[in-house]
Structure formats: C-alpha cells, structure tokens
Design goal:
Layout (H helix, E strand, L loop, with lengths): L2 E4 L7 H7 L2 H4 L26 H8 L6 E8 L5 E9 L5 E8 L8 H14 L6 E6 L4 H10 L2 E6 L2 E7 L1
Parallel strand pairs: 4-5
Antiparallel strand pairs: 1-2, 2-3, 3-4, 5-7, 6-7
C-alpha cells in the first residue's frame, strides 16, 4: 500500500473525530489514566467535539516548525487511514512523534510506511536533529516497527519505553 501525508482542511477533521472515538482503534490507550477532560479510561477513546475543532486546528495545523500534523492517506483510494504528528519538546529540532492508525489498517504495513513518511518530513522539511517516542513495552508491534525504522531504546522508566532516532 502506498501512503502520502495529507495536511487536512478544517472541514476534514471529521476523520480525526471518528478515529479518536473508535474503541478498537484507541484500545492501546485504554487504562492509561491520562486524566484529561474527554479521555475515557475504559476504552482509550478521546472526545473531539466539533466545538473544539477551530482551536485545535489553529494550534496544530500550519504551526511548523513547532508542530506538524497530517493524515495518512491511501494514494490509490484517497481514503484517510490514520494520523501522524510531531511537536518540539526539549528544544529546537527535538520532536516527539505520534501515530494512530485505524484498526482496520493495522498489520498491512501502514504503520511502517507512516513512520517513514513522518521521519522524512521531520529530518527533511523540519530539519529535525532527533525524533522521540514513548509507549508501554507491551506494545510489541509498535516496538518492532520503531526499531525497524532506526529508533533505539534510550531507557525504560515508570512502565514506558523511551525511544529516539537521530539524523
């Protein structure tokens, strides 16, 4: 499957709303006790009501180099299959990444392709020096994909693996 990064228009945020409200897609996030309004600990889902779209969009879209957000789009069908993001953390050029793939697209190479596209954007267009991510060690598929992309485990702390890739 061939994917591309698609920076959404405000009117296209319905896909993000559906993605974050899908219990099967968000199950990795269940039980994390994130403790913010709209997070559902039992399912991992996150509310993204229409009333929040304008503020969220202003913060995330068109905010480069501080933040980057895009959908993963199937080039053959035009269908959105997931989302990716980057935001600066400890200083210029150091980014934390995120990827959420719709559950129906898992196991088809989309995560691997999505991470590759995101890293190309980070190290290319954004001039990143380092990209990081963290998640639970029980997420074996995520770990395998990150290691295959060139990430290395930096440390394990408080039940999370911290990974990094440096250009």
């Amino acid at each position: 499957m061939s994917l591309t990064l698609h920076v959404p228009e405000l009117s296209e945020l319905g896909f993000r709303q559906r993605l974050l409200s899908d219990p099967e897609t968000m199950s990795y996030n269940a039980g994390c006790d994130l403790g913010f309004p709209g997070y559902h600990n039992d399912t991992g889902c996150i509310d993204f009501p229409r009333g929040d779209w304008d503020g969220w969009y202003a913060r995330w879209v068109g905010a480069e180099p501080t933040r980057f957000y895009a959908y993963l789009q199937d080039t053959a069908t035009g269908e959105f299959v997931g989302e990716v993001s980057l935001y600066e953390t400890t200083g210029p050029g150091v980014y934390e990444m995120g990827i959420v793939l719709h559950s129906s697209r898992r196991g088809r190479g989309c995560s691997r392709e999505g991470i590759r596209l995101l890293l190309d954007h980070a190290f290319g267009e954004l001039g990143a020096k380092e990209v990081t991510n963290c998640f639970e060690p029980t997420r074996e598929a995520a770990l395998k994909i990150h290691l295959a992309a060139g990430f290395r485990i930096v440390r394990e702390d408080n039940g999370l693996l911290y990974l990094s890739i440096i250009k």
